[in-house]
Design a protein that fits this description.
The protein is an alpha+beta fold. The chain is 40% helix and 16% strand. It has one domain (2-85).
């Protein structure tokens, strides 16, 4: 439940997320939960891998590519200005 809770918070706030798969628990079900159950898209700043080193590499790439939170409607929040941009 803790993993799912942290995932939901990060997803809702638009933060980059790295999911280490094939570890048991809920990790392999994350795409199913987002797409099939919640009817949403997996955001481009969420990455998956069963190799921790590769996962960190992927996460580093998405953090560089998407440095600000991504919201489902396409907004990114500029923390410095506290405004939303489209």
């Amino acid at each position: 439940m803790g993993t799912l809770n942290e995932l939901i918070i990060a997803f809702d706030e638009g933060h980059p997320v790295g999911v280490l798969t094939s570890t048991g628990g809920i990790s392999n079900s994350v795409p199913h939960i987002i797409v099939d159950l919640c009817k949403r898209q997996v955001p481009p700043n969420m990455v998956f891998d069963d190799d921790p080193v590769k996962l960190l590499d992927k996460l580093e790439e998405v953090i560089e590519k998407y440095p600000r939170p991504i919201h489902e409607d396409g907004r990114v929040k500029d923390a410095r200005e506290q405004r939303f941009h489209l």
